[in-house]
Design goal:
alpha/beta, 25% strand, 262 residues, 2 domains, FAD/NAD(P)-binding domain, five-stranded parallel beta sheet, three-stranded antiparallel beta sheet, single chain, 9 helices
Length: 262
């Protein structure tokens, strides 16, 4: 959208192809609504359209509908911005059990309107903004959202109240843990002012934070029942490279209904 905006201002005839039903890509489908109201995205898209750009939603590039096909339609230059829509796997025992989901998939499904039941107890593994988004979304139902809904409604002109409320009430777990390999100071989510504020809000909402722990194994039968962690004594070596070290004698086990990989 940013590229389309700037090119349209420069006078180019711009067409944006969006694979999903609505414009915005990962802004719309990867970020919780309570953090980025959909009305903001809709207004930005409307501004870009008024500048002369065209949006084609539900149109994905495929083996058949490819760059050759686009050139035949008269397009001369291409800017590829597909977004990071795939999460990472965790290479530990038990990572293939039922109840283990990627945070990106979890947020994409919620933001497309699907109900995702994680159970009452959730463990989120990761220390970045995606981990916090997943954790805060999972626990939203267990605090009073009205103050935030009112602030969101005031901040977004003509944004329906239900749009703001859906993000707050979409799903809920009674116990949500975020496990970070890094210490509190090293967590990616704590390196910016906004990240520190979101950490504070997550703790206020009931999310339990466990820094300096690394996952050793996901426990259970066919379905996840818990996760075993080992204490991380150092994440980066003396040269600043990622090279975690662990204290194998110091372990922790959390019982859980779901594991979210972030």
């Amino acid at each position: 959208m940013g590229c389309a905006h700037d090119l349209a201002i420069m006078g180019y005839d711009v067409t944006v192809f969006e694979a999903l039903p609505d414009v915005g890509g990962m802004l719309r489908y990867g970020i919780p609504e309570y953090r980025l109201p959909r009305g903001v995205i809709d207004r930005e898209a409307a501004i870009i359209e008024r500048l002369g750009a065209t949006f084609k939603t539900g149109t994905a590039l495929t083996a058949e509908y490819n760059f050759r096909a686009l050139r035949e339609e008269g397009f001369e230059a291409f800017f590829i911005s597909i977004g990071a829509m795939r999460g990472r796997d965790l290479n530990i025992p038990g990572s293939d059990k039922d109840g283990v989901v990627k945070a990106v998939d979890y947020l994409l499904n919620l933001n497309r309107g699907y109900q995702v039941n994680l159970g009452d107890r959730v463990v989120v593994i990761g220390g970045g903004s995606v981990a916090l988004d997943a954790a805060r979304t999972a626990v939203r139902e267990f605090y009073n959202p009205m103050e935030e809904i009112e602030m969101t409604a005031e901040a977004v002109v003509a944004q329906p109240a239900m749009d703001a409320a859906r993000g707050a009430l979409r799903s809920g777990a009674s116990e949500v843990h975020v496990i970070s390999l890094e210490s509190l100071e090293e967590m990616p989510a704590s390196r910016t002012i906004q990240g520190k504020e979101e950490l504070r809000e997550a703790l206020e909402e009931g999310v339990k934070l466990h820094p300096a722990w690394g996952p050793r194994a996901i426990l259970g039968g066919e379905r996840v029942e818990g996760v075993e962690f080992v204490n991380c004594t150092r994440v980066f070596d003396e040269n600043g490279r990622f090279n975690p070290e662990f204290d194998e004698s110091n372990t922790m086990t959390l019982e859980t209904d779901s594991v979210v990989l972030a």
